[in-house]
Design a protein that fits this description.
The structure holds two protein chains of two kinds. By secondary structure, chain A is an all-alpha fold. Chain A has two domains: 108 residues, RNA polymerase sigma factor, region 2, helix turn helix motif (Rna Polymerase Sigma Factor, Chain: A, Orthogonal Bundle); 79 residues, Arc Repressor Mutant, subunit A (Orthogonal Bundle), CATH 1.10.10.10. Helices cover 70% and strands 0% of the residues of chain A. By secondary structure, chain B is α+β, with helices and mostly antiparallel strands. Chain B contains eight helices and twelve strands. In chain B, a hairpin with a 5-residue loop joins strand 5 and strand 6. In chain B, helix 5 packs antiparallel against helix 6. Chain B is elongated, with a radius of gyration of 26 Å. At the A-B interface, helix 2, helix 3, helix 4, helix 5 and helix 6 of A face helix 2, helix 3, helix 4, helix 5 and helix 6 of B.
Chain lengths: 191, 270
């Protein structure tokens, strides 16, 4: 998180048309997007590459309209998640080809809390993980988020469960974290 | 009791006081319905990205990764395509493309009477040729005798004890022929490879394929020539195309990327 301001500076430079800033943004943030994609077990490696590419194409196209340079990382990850979900829903025939989950409009992305707040959020999440009852969900969350090495597919293999079971566990846990962060946002960050 | 739904999420995104007040209290305790909804729906704002940023920050920090050049080349290529967005973006995308030439292993490509699409750089320079069905890009990494890997730019000086590893991006599956040429000699076929769509290391049946430079010195050219499965030309036909003697490729199915290095012999100091 300490590199947030450094990233924002590259965002500003890219938005002003500085060529090298785009490759630097890509270099810095691609691993994060790829790691996010590693949680979508039903996507194969080619689909993951396609989603990563689509994410950056969308983000770079819209970058000059991004009002808050400091929100780039969260905005990029939001786009990536939307692209992955759209891909999965189309794959499962739940979504028509022309239908698309819309990404957050760059003009309306608000300023995000400072790094200190994010550090607090991380501590809250660590606490929530430690409070999870011992079991498969906790093990899955630890392997994917705390150890951060294995993909959801690899975790499924290691735990001897289906790919979608791992993705569902991660999504369920993530829903809990999202509720907690939303509550915190509602409790003060917008007021 | 109200739970989160599309309408409530929109109200929260608009910061409607009543919705904010209600859900601030409601979400203070675990709610399976709301958590399930949040897990499968985007927003409000970039909350999803914030959540993912926090979660991904839990893992130990990783070492600084080098630029994934092939991946960035794909992004750059997409950005070059016409898009309904602003004229301003077009200028920026162009700047990205131009800047990337300095760092990406863009194969130096040649075109002649063959009419063969020789890869992305010919598009950048405005040369029009028949468009092959496979678009092919190539990145080359040198593996030194100490096992260290380093990315190569075209025309880089390499050592004779290096091994060159090739990574390609192909838009379609197909078959590729790998040729090398020393100085002014004839191109020499090194092998035939099955290509998969996407980004992959060049692999033969025995595994990862490397080009040994042992015993080489001076300029060396590598070509990877790809065609869709079932449309493979013979090695001799491809060879003629590589040296500019081929006849016009009526089907326009061959894509060729070229990479040049200069090899210094092992006796010379680095």
């Amino acid at each position: 998180m300490g590199s947030t301001e450094g990233l924002a500076e590259w965002v500003r430079r890219a938005a002003s048309g500085e060529t090298s800033a785009f490759s630097e943004l890509y270099r810095r943030t691609r691993p994060l997007v790829a790691r996010l994609m590693a949680g979508f077990a039903p996507l194969d490696s080619d689909e993951v590459e396609d989603v990563i590419q689509e994410t950056f194409v969308r983000a770079f196209r819209a970058l000059p309209r991004l009002k808050e340079a400091g929100a780039f990382e969260a905005w990029l990850l939001s786009i990536a998640r939307n692209r992955a979900r759209t891909r999965l829903e189309r794959k499962a025939s739940l979504r028509r080809l022309e239908d698309d989950i819309s990404d957050p409009e760059p003009e309306t992305v608000p300023a995000l809390p400072e790094a200190l707040q994010l550090e607090r959020d991380i501590e809250v999440v660590r606490q929530l993980i430690s409070e999870l009852p011992d079991g498969e969900e906790k093990r899955t969350v630890q392997l994917f988020y705390i150890e951060g090495e294995l993909s959801a597919r690899e975790i499924a293999e290691q735990l001897g469960v289906g790919k979608s079971a791992v993705t569902m566990r991660l999504e369920r846990f993530r829903g809990r974290i999202k509720r907690e962060l939303l509550r915190r946002v509602l409790a003060g960050r917008w007021e | 009791m109200r739970h989160l739904d599309d309408e409530a999420l929109s109200a929260l995104a608009r910061r409607e006081p009543e919705a904010v007040k209600y859900f601030r209290e409601h979400l203070a305790t675990a709610c399976e319905a709301c958590e399930g909804f949040l897990a499968t729906h985007s927003g409000p704002d970039v909350l999803d990205g914030q959540v993912d940023a926090v979660l991904l920050a839990l893992a130990p920090p990783r070492t600084d990764a080098p630029l994934d050049e092939v991946g960035f080349a794909r992004v750059r290529r997409e950005l070059r395509k016409p898009h309904l967005d602003t004229r301003r973006w077009g200028l920026i995308a162009g700047a990205v493309a131009a800047g990337l030439l300095a760092i990406i292993v863009v194969p130096r490509l040649r075109q002649g009477g063959s009419g063969v699409e020789l890869g992305p750089a010919s598009q950048e320079s405005g040369v029009k040729g028949q468009v092959g069905r496979i678009a092919l890009e190539l990145a080359v990494v040198a593996k030194g005798s100490d096992g260290a890997l380093r990315r190569l730019d075209p025309d880089t000086l390499v050592d004779s004890d290096d091994v060159l590893l090739l990574r390609y991006h192909a838009t379609e599956a197909g078959t590729a022929l790998l040729f090398q040429r020393r100085a002014d000699e004839e191109p020499q076929l090194l092998g035939t490879f099955e290509l998969e769509a996407g980004t992959h290391d060049l692999r033969g049946p025995q595994g990862l394929s490397g080009v040994s430079l042992e015993g080489e010195s001076g300029p060396l050219t590598l070509w990877l020539a790809a065609s869709p499965a079932g449309l493979e030309p013979s090695p001799d036909e491809v060879k003629r195309v590589l040296v500019g003697e081929g006849e016009r490729w009526e089907q326009g199915t061959l894509a060729v990327t070229r990479f040049d290095v200069r090899v210094r012999s092992g006796q010379n100091p680095r």
